[in-house]
Design goal:
Radius of gyration: 23 Å
Order of helices and strands: EEEHEHHEEEHHHHHHHHH
Low-confidence stretches: 261-281
Mean pLDDT: 88
Shape: elongated
Number of strands: 7
Number of helices: 12
Structural class: alpha+beta
Helix content: 40-55%
Largest sheet: 4 strands, mixed
Distance between the termini: 37 Å
Strand content: 5-15%
Length: 281
């Protein structure tokens, strides 16, 4: 049996939660329309494999005290429309509610899975790991759950944003070890533009800028990091201060600077974020 759009029930589909909510199949991308349909799919997406109880779906999509008497039937209608559009196995019925089917490839799940991997913390990022990082970042099309207003997705939004920073750091290390410093700079700039950038991020950014021959710019970025820290009553650490001194006195050596040491600096942002996405889940 096929849905109304001629998609076979067991055809794999990609659920895009990072950016506008939608579903991608082999040859098309379909936005998922409707506030309540979005709430239902969002709750199913962040749920464990066991799925979501019907009562929880009703609470999210038809909250009290304004829930209509026919809310349960309205939920059934939403599920039926989603199945008709994306295949009968897009959403499975469980003993107490619903869950996403196994043919659904969730962008958020892939992003969190790759970001939680120990392998992306390695100083030398393996090619296979780098490819998985690129795939995960390629699934990022905008703010997570951008059109979803239910409060249940807020913790997941934070998890995904933290995951993106970990993926950016892994990508920057991979680019740096390939001497692709201009691309590493672009990636690191996206990290320090947030309030979660660490002193090590600023170090890597300044080093990559210096490797491009822009030592004056590298020194200015270190001074920018110092100003941000000073605003919080802190000082830059020894590693970043040593890089600044070496750049100023001309003793900086690009090849030796590529030997990455273990991070030792505190978080530079307004709050200390856990660096491991697995600890956020």
């Amino acid at each position: 049996m096929q849905g109304s759009n001629d998609r076979a029930d067991d055809d794999p589909v990609q659920l895009c939660e990072v950016g506008p909510l939608g579903v991608r199949s082999t040859d098309s991308w379909t936005p998922l329309r409707g506030e309540r349909a979005g709430a239902v799919v969002a709750l199913l997406s962040i749920a464990p494999d066991s799925g979501v109880r019907t009562a929880a779906l009703l609470d999210a999509a038809w909250p009290e005290p304004d829930r209509p008497a026919n809310a349960r039937q309205s939920l059934a209608n939403v599920i039926a429309r989603l199945r008709a559009q994306f295949g009968a196995s897009f959403i499975e019925t469980t003993g107490s509610g619903y869950r996403l089917g196994p043919m659904v490839d969730s962008d958020r799940a892939r992003i969190l899975e790759v970001a939680a991997s120990d392998e992306i913390d390695d100083a030398d990022v393996d090619r296979g790991v780098a490819e998985r990082v690129d795939d995960a970042l390629g699934r990022w099309r905008g703010e997570p759950w951008v059109d979803i207003t239910i409060e249940e997705v807020e913790p997941d939004r934070a998890r995904l944003n933290a995951a993106r920073l970990r993926l950016f750091r892994a990508k920057a290390r991979s680019l740096a070890q390939q001497n692709r410093d201009a691309e590493a700079v672009e990636t690191l700039e996206q990290i320090v533009a947030t309030d979660a950038g660490t002193e090590d991020d600023w170090y890597d950014l300044a080093r990559a800028i210096a490797a491009l021959g822009n030592r004056a710019d590298a020194i200015e970025r270190i001074r920018e990091a110092r100003r941000l820290l000073a605003h919080r009553g802190l000082e830059i650490g020894e590693r970043l201060a040593s890089l600044e001194s070496a750049l100023l006195d001309g003793s900086w050596n690009e090849s030796s600077s590529r030997r990455r040491t273990e991070p030792s600096s505190p978080m530079l942002g307004r709050r200390a974020q856990l660096d491991r996405v697995s600890e956020l889940i």
